[in-house]
Amino acid sequence: MQGLQIRTPANAGSYKITTDSSRKEVEDQEMLTPPSTPARAKANEQFPSRRSLDACQSRVSELDFTPDLSQAQLLGEGVWSKVYSIPAVPLNSSQPGRPMTPPSTPHKSTFASSQQYAIKTATRSDAAAVFQAEAQILTYIQNYDSSSDYVVPFVGVCTGTSSPSLLFQRADAGSLESLLESSSNLSLSATLDLFLHILQQLTHGLYFLHNTTNTIHADIKPANILLSSTACPSTPTARYADFSTSFVADTTPSSHSGGGTYSFMAPEQLSRDPEASTPTYASDVYSAGITLLSFLCGGNPFASMLNNGFRLREAVKMGDAMSWAMQEPAFENRVEQLQKIWEERGGEGKILGLVAPALRKKREDRIEAGAWCGKVDAAIAKLNKAESVGLGIRC
């Protein structure tokens, strides 16, 4: 990631991120029912670094571990699972203190108390296949050395639990959703810093998923972007999480890969045509665009329709999320103020222009992840060049 100068105003301080499950009922109403016969996904390009997902199937780490969840902190819950924080870490005997890499054959591991980890446990009897598929694709992704820069590290499958459970390194600074909900407590200058930082991280992460691993995430939204603290409070590490609906392009998605959350889905995904509704690279780009637009606005672009499923679906189908967002006076005012700060710092063009190419209605018109990275990097580089070196604080 290229150097981004981050301002830390005296009144910005640190921000508080909390886990809030108050919107679960609304999200459940938005959730699509997985199709029973998903169509085959088609890749737009053939990438040179393609690796076999099937080859990773036998290398998923098995962890002989039974966590005590009676006193564990609940971090969140979704359609298939609940996620808890636990004080346990698997030890790598060759490199103590570091997460294990997937072994060539399944094996048992031992644990010792160290730092906080997160365990994802199934809440439905039919979730076993979902967990197995997620463990498999995460193991596949982690075959790439830079995966931990963009994806929350996966440790392995816990075999000592009564229901399927997956262990991850815990992202200790909450989610982008919780940050979004608390962002009104930040100064606008700090908000702009965070937006640019997270924008660059997420676009680079999407490029990694699409162009390096050929993976379609299929459910990008603020709740599935997890944050980890760094030495600089204003620059948390943002990484993709929840690969329960993900699949490798040019493979047949499993039956649960058609799900998603209405307000973060691309217009074509609401089509009755299975070929059009199957997640693609382009739908991932759109979902990432809506996610970043939400952070810019300070709320869901379709906020006024979240309690009316029919109106919400029709609005999503129109493919004009920015217009809907700007109908909210609070959203429009926040974007205008951020635009003013952007221009004062020397930013070029409209700040909404950094996400607009991802939000085009027709998927063939949307920007690809690589081009999006280039656009964002160029805009931030110009901004950094325009600013006086003395105004930026590097952590």
What is the strand and helix layout of this fold?
Blueprint: H1 24-30, E1 62-63, E2 73-77, E3 81-86, E4 89-90, E5 111-112, E6 117-122, H2 128-141, H3 147-150, E7 154-158, E8 165-169, H4 176-182, H5 188-212, E9 215-216, E10 225-228, E11 237-240, E12 247-248, H6 274-277, H7 281-297, H8 309-318, H9 321-326, H10 329-345, H11 369-386
Parallel strand pairs: 1-7
Antiparallel strand pairs: 2-3, 3-6, 4-5, 6-8, 7-8, 9-12, 10-11
Molecular structure report:
By secondary structure, the chain is an alpha+beta fold. The chain folds into two domains: 45-169, Phosphorylase Kinase, domain 1; 176-391, Transferase(Phosphotransferase), domain 1. Helices cover 33% and strands 11% of the residues. It has eleven helices and twelve strands. It has helices at residues 24-30, 128-141, 147-150, 176-182, 188-212, 274-277, 281-297, 309-318, 321-326, 329-345, 369-386; strands at residues 62-63, 73-77, 81-86, 89-90, 111-112, 117-122, 154-158, 165-169, 215-216, 225-228, 237-240, 247-248. The strands form four sheets. A six-stranded mixed β-sheet has the order 1-7-8-6-3-2, with helices on one face. A hairpin with a 3-residue loop joins strand 2 and strand 3 (81-86). Helix 5 packs antiparallel against helix 7 and helix 5 (188-212) crosses helix 10. It comes from Aureobasidium mustum. Keywords: ATP-binding, Nucleotide-binding. InterPro entries: Kinase-like_dom_sf (IPR011009), Prot_kinase_dom (IPR000719), Ser/Thr_Kinases-Pseudokinases (IPR051681).
